[in-house]
Fold this protein.
Amino acid sequence: MKIFLDTSNKNDIVKWLPTGIIDGVTTNPTTLSKEGSEPKKQILEICSAFPQGDISVEVTEQEPDKVYAQAKEIAGLAKNITVKIPCQLRYYAVIKKLVEEKIAINVTLVFTLIQATMMCKLGVRYISPFIGRWDDIDVQGADILYEIRAMVDEYGYKTQILAASLRSALHLHAAIASGADIATIAPEVLEKTLNHLLTNQGVEKFLHDWAKTGVKQFP
Ligand code: G3P
């Protein structure tokens, strides 16, 4: 299971690297806009701070021809960049062409099994099914992960499932339990998920009880 950080904040990324559990980063126009710095500079800083990480960077053009050109330019910024393209019908031919040219593609804003299947047919590196945004409209988003996993395995596709829009421990749990290849999660959500209440309470009790022994030096 690979874990990506869903952020454009370089400092957050650098803070998490020593944990050894981070394998990449997914940025998007929204998280980049929050940084208040020049986006290309921000991306280059992230890529050089995390050269062994897989860094997803999303296109912002609208017209297919411009998306194609921008995707090539983004891919050329650094060796560890994967280009994010929204899962819209108008980009299918562009995605097909980029895959044929060996550009690493992460298809984002995937919401249905059908969309996921079409992207696997094109041989993209990643598909990013969004979970939290289904929950935002009162639909159990995690279910789609199990269906996509079964589809990829049924047809023997090589595309990796990158579970995205994960807003809670429950979403991350579903991503892992469903067999997604990767989960991308915001640093603050990951921190909250990994600081488990019962683990912390257990440590406090152990230390409280240990203090009763009066032992200062152990072993
Ligand atoms: O970056 C892609 C995805 O993880 C965005 O999540 O929370 O904006 O739906 P969210």
User: Anything to note?
Assistant: The chain has one domain: 2-211.
